[in-house]
TrEMBL record:
<dbReference type="Pfam" id="PF08240">
    <property type="entry name" value="ADH_N"/>
</dbReference>
<dbReference type="InterPro" id="IPR013154">
    <property type="entry name" value="ADH-like_N"/>
</dbReference>
<dbReference type="InterPro" id="IPR011032">
    <property type="entry name" value="GroES-like_sf"/>
</dbReference>
<feature type="domain" description="Enoyl reductase (ER)">
    <location>
        <begin position="17"/>
        <end position="344"/>
    </location>
</feature>
<dbReference type="Pfam" id="PF00107">
    <property type="entry name" value="ADH_zinc_N"/>
</dbReference>
<dbReference type="InterPro" id="IPR020843">
    <property type="entry name" value="ER"/>
</dbReference>
<protein>
    <recommendedName>
        <fullName>Enoyl reductase (ER) domain-containing protein</fullName>
    </recommendedName>
</protein>
<dbReference type="InterPro" id="IPR052711">
    <property type="entry name" value="Zinc_ADH-like"/>
</dbReference>
<dbReference type="GO" id="GO:0016491">
    <property type="term" value="F:oxidoreductase activity"/>
</dbReference>
<dbReference type="InterPro" id="IPR036291">
    <property type="entry name" value="NAD(P)-bd_dom_sf"/>
</dbReference>
<dbReference type="InterPro" id="IPR013149">
    <property type="entry name" value="ADH-like_C"/>
</dbReference>
């Protein structure tokens, strides 16, 4: 089968530290001792993690890994005969293993698809533990289902488990072009909370307001954007209840004067600067800074039910046919040009 494999070192003119090579690798096989399923992947989606990996900035890099954490496909076979009824079902894969249900964090060693020893979804087939597959919500297309897992789970935990967003809250979501940020915007708006967004791109702010129900937005490249954001808030609730942040750096100092006392900053990533400044003023305001990661299998199941009940559709920034399009997608993502998830559909041959 074809798969995108991480290889050490860059090719000439490559801005990434490590390359991806479209390779011919064996179709994975089922081990009769495990409780696994073989899935023929219909589509896979990209995450910023894939960019960090190629830049050499992700911990635990393993060369020869098949990359990719998001995938949707059709079950072909099961290692245990009693689950053979699953064959033919379309499933979406929980991308993180080792975390069952503890809301505080993983019970076991946690690992994410797309780095060895785990397989990746930028491939035609994958073998996955049966416990990590879930039915695809019926209202989703193949590409939308592929776009959901990692970003949806991260946004769900950051928004509800960590920021405890409630209807009527004012919530700031930073860097709205990102996959996680857009999922958070969908989730926040769907429960009747008021979402405000930041972006480096005015057209993304416009789309977030006009198409996705954001109440307002501000360009984070502008001087004094927090003051301008404060001016957008309604008179009867002139503060933020929480911030869902993927940027890091100065986010506490930037939002602490707009947040209510005891407001929560739920931070799932640090794309701008990989550390946080936490000033004394934030202490005096009782502001809570909470780190948030992907989430447990239990949260993944709840996220899928939430999406299904509210008929939420992930925002898609582009769909390509075939794994050979990966270099173009890495280019777009590394420049932050996308608005929504970037998806590859597989042109599949028969097994
Ligand atoms: N901890 C976890 O488990 C976990 C899970 C998922 C993601 N993450 C991390 O979260 C971050 C976002 O992931 P993603 O997959 O959603 O990324 P993505 O789709 O590549 O989006 C990145 C977005 O970050 C925004 N951005 C860049 N610099 C910014 C800044 N200085 N201030 C505010 N926003 C900025 C840009 O938004 P605009 O285009 O609107 O300017 C860009 O579109 C990454 O760092 C990723 O590694 C962590």
């Amino acid at each position: 089968m074809k798969a995108l494999v991480l290889q050490k070192g860059a090719k000439d003119n490559d801005k990434f530290k490590h390359s991806i090579v479209l390779s011919e690798v064996p179709i994975p096989t089922l081990n009769p001792d495990n409780d696994d399923v073989l899935i023929k992947l219909q589509a896979a989606a990209f995450n910023h993690r894939d960019v960090w990996i190629r830049k050499g900035l992700y911990p635990g890099l393993q060369f020869d890994s098949v990359l990719g954490s998001d995938g949707v496909g059709i079950v072909q076979a099961t290692s245990r005969a009693e689950f053979s009824y699953l064959a033919g079902q379309q499933v979406v894969i929980n991308p993180g293993f080792g975390w069952e249900k503890d809301p505080k964090g993983p019970e076991n060693k946690y690992a994410i698809l797309g780095l060895l020893p785990l397989p990746g979804t930028f491939a035609e087939y994958i073998v996955i533990p049966r416990a990590e597959i879930f039915p695809v919500p019926e209202h989703l297309s193949i590409a939308e289902a592929a776009a959901l897992p990692l970003a949806g789970l991260t946004a769900f935990r950051a928004t509800f488990t960590k920021a405890n967003v409630q209807p009527g809250d004012n919530v700031l979501i930073t860097g709205i072009g990102g996959g996680v940020a857009l999922a958070a915007l969908n989730f926040v708006s769907s429960i009747g909370a008021n979402a405000y967004v930041t972006s480096s791109d005015e057209s993304k702010i416009k789309k977030a307001i006009e198409k996705l129900g954001a109440k307002g937005g501000i360009n984070y490249k502008e001087d004094e954007w927090p003051k301008k954001l404060k001016a957008l808030l309604p008179n009867d609730r002139p503060f933020l209840d929480s911030v869902i942040d993927g940027a890091g750096g100065e986010i506490v100092s930037q939002t602490m004067k707009v947040l209510r006392p005891g407001g929560i900053i739920s931070c799932y990533g640090m794309t701008s600067v990989p550390s946080i400044v936490y000033p004394m003023f934030a202490v005096l305001q009782n502001i809570e800074f909470r780190g948030s990661t992907m989430g447990s299998r239990e949260e993944f199941g709840r996220m899928l039910n939430f999406v299904k009940e509210r008929k939420i559709k992930p925002v898609i920034g582009g769909i390509w046919q075939g794994l050979e399009n990966a270099p173009e997608i890495f280019e777009i993502m590394s420049k932050g040009k996308q608005f929504g998830k970037l998806v590859i559909e597989n042109k599949l041959s028969k097994l």
